[in-house]
Automatic annotation (TrEMBL):
<dbReference type="InterPro" id="IPR006176">
    <property type="entry name" value="3-OHacyl-CoA_DH_NAD-bd"/>
</dbReference>
<dbReference type="Pfam" id="PF00725">
    <property type="entry name" value="3HCDH"/>
</dbReference>
<dbReference type="InterPro" id="IPR008927">
    <property type="entry name" value="6-PGluconate_DH-like_C_sf"/>
</dbReference>
<feature type="domain" description="3-hydroxyacyl-CoA dehydrogenase NAD binding">
    <location>
        <begin position="7"/>
        <end position="185"/>
    </location>
</feature>
<dbReference type="Pfam" id="PF02737">
    <property type="entry name" value="3HCDH_N"/>
</dbReference>
<feature type="domain" description="3-hydroxyacyl-CoA dehydrogenase C-terminal">
    <location>
        <begin position="188"/>
        <end position="284"/>
    </location>
</feature>
<comment type="similarity">
    <text>Belongs to the 3-hydroxyacyl-CoA dehydrogenase family.</text>
</comment>
<comment type="pathway">
    <text>Lipid metabolism; butanoate metabolism.</text>
</comment>
<dbReference type="InterPro" id="IPR006108">
    <property type="entry name" value="3HC_DH_C"/>
</dbReference>
<dbReference type="InterPro" id="IPR013328">
    <property type="entry name" value="6PGD_dom2"/>
</dbReference>
<feature type="domain" description="3-hydroxyacyl-CoA dehydrogenase NAD binding">
    <location>
        <begin position="312"/>
        <end position="490"/>
    </location>
</feature>
<dbReference type="InterPro" id="IPR036291">
    <property type="entry name" value="NAD(P)-bd_dom_sf"/>
</dbReference>
<protein>
    <submittedName>
        <fullName>3-hydroxybutyryl-CoA dehydrogenase</fullName>
    </submittedName>
</protein>
<feature type="domain" description="3-hydroxyacyl-CoA dehydrogenase C-terminal">
    <location>
        <begin position="493"/>
        <end position="589"/>
    </location>
</feature>
<keyword id="KW-0560">Oxidoreductase</keyword>
Amino acid sequence: MARDISTVGVVGLGTMGAGIAEVLARSGLDVVTVELDETAVARGRGHLEHSTERALSGGKLDEAGREALLGRIRYSTSLSDLSDVDLVVEAIPESLAAKADVFAQLDKITRPEVVFASNTSSLSITEIGVHTARPGKVVGMHFFNPAPVQKLVEIVKTVVTEPEVVTDTVAFAERLGKVPVVIGDRAGFIANALLFGYLNHAVRMYEQRYATREDLDAAMRFGCGYPMGPLALLDLIGLDTANEILDTMYHQSRNRLHAPAPLLKQMITAGLLGRKTGRGFYTYDAPDSPNVVADTAVTSTVDGVAPRPVAKVGVVGTGTMATGIAEVFAKRGLDVVLRARSLEKAQASVAKVKKSLDKAVVKGKLSEEDAALALARITPVTDFDALADVDLVVEAVAEELSVKQAVFAALDEVVRPGAVLATTTSSLPVIECAAATSRPSDVVGLHFFNPAPVMKLVEVVSTIATAPDVVATASAVCQAVGKHAVHCGDRAGFIVNALLFPYLNDAVKMLEAHYAGADDIDTAMKVGCGLPMGPFELLDVVGLDVSLAIQRTLYNEFREEGFAPAPLLEHLVTAGRLGRKTGKGFKDY
């Protein structure tokens, strides 16, 4: 029989505690809140009044509703006032000793059947629960900030949590209008465990000057559809908070990828905590402001370098990527020479471009005249000699180094001196392609994202040999065709794949450990972090074989233990479960 919960205690009235109290009162529950002293109570009451005032002005509450909501909340400075509550949510700062002390006191005050829920985002629920005589009735109930807005609640069960307590807590979260996911007791739970490894990796990239902060953030927004880039998100969370969560995760996992990047500690020591102090990775116009202002950090790698002129472009290949790139250039007024291995393949590629252009016309994104002009700009050829006078060649053949090297060797013989040679590789070393030519300074990576006509991002990859004006040319071409260029060095995964695939791999390891189900993990990342797709949905779309190949490339380059492909991913690929393309992957289609 489900518990009858009508009065809930909330311990701690900081931003999270006040938000949770508001959620509870909004659901018609009576709430008893407890803070350390009258000053803290006044501050907590201020949080609630400010938040409900915003809801009132935003039309989400009326005046009567606001008064009724605030009237259901009582304030106290004594835990003994929680003696009659039906459930307690603890939301004090992240200190194991402090939380354990609160729970030990509550254990003596409340009825034996009362459930204790901790809102901790990273501490062990097991370690908190053992300080009570009722560890079976202790759960994690991790709300996300701001609690009145965010839908996700992670319900954390320990090895001794009673099954009916989990069931009742899930039902209670649903009653609050939240989306609960049930997980085991591990540092970071689902969302933080997957999110903070990715954020830490981004800090390391920035620390190593591999890419600028703007390019790292733009890459994940334009390449993955993330609502915020990793460094901007860290500024929002607070660098001190992120460091604490990572440190807790590292002490449990001993995974080097969770060890906070040294730069985080240096910035915290310097008082650069993010938005709350007005400066973190970015500078803001005031503490707690979201408005970024200019500062002295380096933001561009090509300023002041003149690009080479580009009017005619060669594209080598006939796959989806090659035809997409040809379409992008042709639509923007550039003449395109599309080279294929046979006339049939070349004609089929032009037909694919025509089909895509026709679709754009039907959708009203392109006029019939512009579509016809774009198609007329594409010349299909079978001979490399036809590329002799182009200003830029983009190679988009199969993702095999020997195949690409053969193409670059052929281009080196026929393409005029001074032309830029680019590869669209997503994971292979650009310098290996450059080494197949007598002009490595003219070679650059231009990694378009699929589908090229739609995706805004292009990663411009410089090798140690790439000339500055070649980088400037690549950047100028991206701008000319309406793409957002980000710059990085020549190492496995570039920016997007290097940040994305270890996160996806971590999700597979989480599933493999029976820590949480695939649907719950997907829900946590979509609802809790605002990502467009959960990790397993995305892996099935990308293809498990493609994902495994990229993960192996990352592991072989960095030799980082945490990058080793999850055995479950290897097994699914071996079994032929490759995702949507085979009808079975992590999910069945």
